[in-house]
Amino acid sequence: MSSKVFVAGTGLLGGQIISALLDQDAPVRALVRPGTEPARMDALRARGVEVVEGDITGPLEHLAEAIGDATTVISAVQGGPDVIVDGQVNLVHAAEKAGVRRFIPSDFAVDVTKLDDADNFMLDWRRQAAAAYAGAGLEVISVLNGAFYEVMVGFMGLIDWEQSTLSHWGDPDQPFDLTSVPDTAAFAAAVALDPAATGTQRFAGQVLSMRQFHEAVQRGSGRTLELRHLGTADELRAEIQRQAGLTQNPFDYVALQYQWCMVTGKAKFDTLDNARYPHITPTSVTDFVRSTVPPA
Ligand SMILES: NC(=O)c1ccc[n+]([C@@H]2O[C@H](COP(=O)([O-])OP(=O)(O)OC[C@H]3O[C@@H](n4cnc5c(N)ncnc54)[C@H](OP(=O)(O)O)[C@@H]3O)[C@@H](O)[C@H]2O)c1
């Protein structure tokens, strides 16, 4: 496949996807939003990336022009339903107009196909988007990676380094899927450049239970953390409902919704596609923590 790749979203994951594509010598065009700092655009151009300005919620003709002769579009945007649903649907229609052959949406999550509405409102948007562009005249390939290591060690709020605790809900022996951001990007780039890839591709850097994750974090950090059990998966569901009744802002409890999807096993991958790309050797949680968490 002639393979200029258009990447929308140059943040945490999108930036790494661009790096992974460049590592494979793929020509890359990146969409940055109007008002992006010139230094950021210059940094992309210095690496050989064509930079175009635009917004995926903007006029379709402008977006199609920005996509130009790319044959694959990868979306690594983040945002609310205006971006994830309406924006991505708009992007798909622009991609169709530009003659793009395949689209990789900004899924990059646990197995969204196994969830029900209201299990996780951010993942609901991804399923709504998928339903909206299901009939589009291009191939849609979803890349799923479980949880980012970076999120498990940070945003998820499991680890309290000051108190030396790792707190979790649910069965400590329930396995879940997790992958680092650079490894997710490497898999996404591999899928984008693989003419035989189709459907939903599922990858994991590691499949661990909370007990194993705790051991890996301890090994990597050289610290001892008390493993604290906060309650059952049902009690976590009740806690999410309690918090939903207290706030107008669902982002206050979305980390708990992600945890619920994981600790119940509901969004666990049934199979992995890692073996399609044997050149990618994902880093382990232990090595990730060793290289990112400062020693005590
Ligand atoms: N599995 C996991 O644990 C996990 C964790 C985090 C994220 N993710 C997923 O990874 C994907 C990327 O997230 P991220 O963390 O990389 O997000 P991020 O760092 O916030 O980057 C999002 C990018 O999207 C761009 N963007 C937002 N709205 C846009 C629009 N209307 N038009 C064009 N570009 C727009 C932003 O532009 P600016 O640069 O101008 O702001 C930014 O470059 C998302 O699907 C997210 O859900 C997964």
TrEMBL record:
The keyword ATP-binding does not apply. It comes from the Bacteria. Keywords: NADP, Oxidoreductase. InterPro entries: NAD(P)-bd_dom_sf, NmrA-like, NmrA/Isoflavone_reductase-like. Residues 5-231 form the NmrA-like domain. PANTHER family: CIPA-LIKE, PUTATIVE (AFU_ORTHOLOGUE AFUA_1G12460)-RELATED, NMRA-LIKE FAMILY PROTEIN. This is NmrA family NAD(P)-binding protein. It comes from Nonomuraea marmarensis.
